[in-house]
Amino acid sequence: MARPGAACQPPARRVMVAARALLFWALVYSYCGVCACIAGLRLLWSIGRRPGETFRWLMRENPPACLNDPSLGTHCYVRIKDSGLRFHYVAAGERGKPLMLLLHGFPEFWYSWRHQLREFKSEYRVVALDLRGYGETDAPSHKENYKLDFLITDIKDILESLGYNKCVLIGHDWGGMIAWLVAICYPEMVTKLIVVNFPHPSVFTEYILRHPSQLIKSGYYFFFQMPWFPEFMFTVDDFKVLKSLFTSQATGIGKKGCRLTAEDIEAYLYVFSQPGALTGPINHYRNIF
What keywords are assigned to this protein (predicted)? Predict the structure, then answer.
């Protein structure tokens, strides 16, 4: 059924809307191609320099001890009735206390909130979730299952399944975007909203289109639109990209005393080196446009 009034739009207006849509998708796929070419050149450079190391991928069968540290809380699971998905989370603090729900970013999982689990468990029931497709949470195989509507509904359903009708909602990076949208769609469920490293979605959309520098910094959004190749690039040289994200001067934690330990890094490598573990997280981005 056509949108009411669409047929009444002046021809010039319809042409302008179609032209803008064409320009938008041309930009998306052109930049996707540019990012893919850059990644391909880096891959060829790595093969040329160290062919043996390029395709090295260690299978990590046993989790590091830090993932089962009892001081972080209890590992729990909840199955959502409507979607049928089973979600994994780690909970600390007494039941019945106000709920603090923590949503991680990419490429992360519940363990990113280990300090907050310890810090706030005396005042809150703190729950650090593995988002859909991450860690021990179920990962549907089709990218359509990671649309924003599903991700928002996940948080609403999890909140209700935990026996709460409101929470302090904290999100970082991609989890921050989900937190914004949950607060917009279900404001009655959010007593406090804390977002780390993600602006309001509307502001971000306008900013990225007007500032080429931010477009370049967000290039991975476009690169992730490709099938299978982004996942492969993460595995090169035993997940060198993943290690660099957490340890390099450009993107890593620079403050002394706060840097990830070798065991912390191994925890991330353990989770994301499992077969298919990167596809769910990257599928989140494959629906963003």
Answer: Hydrolase, Membrane, Transmembrane, Transmembrane helix
Q: Is 230 helix (H, G, I), strand (E, B) or coil?
A: helix
The Cα 181–Cα 173 span in angstroms is: 13
Half-sphere exposure of residue 160: CA atoms within 13 angstroms, side-chain side: 10
Return the structure tokens found at 238.
């035993």
Domains of the chain are 14-60+210-286 (no CATH), 65-196 (3.40.50.1820)
Q: How far apart are CA 16 and CA 174, in angstroms?
A: 32
Cα 74 to Cα 121, 127, 148, 161, 277, distances in angstroms: 12, 10, 28, 17, 22
CA distance 134 to 151: 12
In this structure, what are the phi and psi dihedrals at residue 99, rounded to the nearest 5 degrees? -85, 135
Residue 211 token pair: 């500032």
Instruction: Write down the pTM of the prediction.
Output: 0.90
Residue 245: Cβ within 10 Å count: 17
Round to whole Å and give the CA distance between 189 and 156: 8
Residue for token pair 């050149």: 41
Per-position pLDDT tens, the chain of length 289: 445 455 556 788 888 888 887 887 787 788 888 888 999 999 999 999 888 888 888 889 999 999 999 999 999 999 999 999 999 999 999 999 999 999 999 999 999 999 999 999 999 999 999 999 999 999 999 999 999 999 999 999 999 999 999 999 999 999 999 999 999 999 999 999 999 999 999 898 888 878 888 888 888 888 999 999 999 999 999 999 999 999 988 888 877 778 899 999 999 999 999 999 999 999 999 998 8
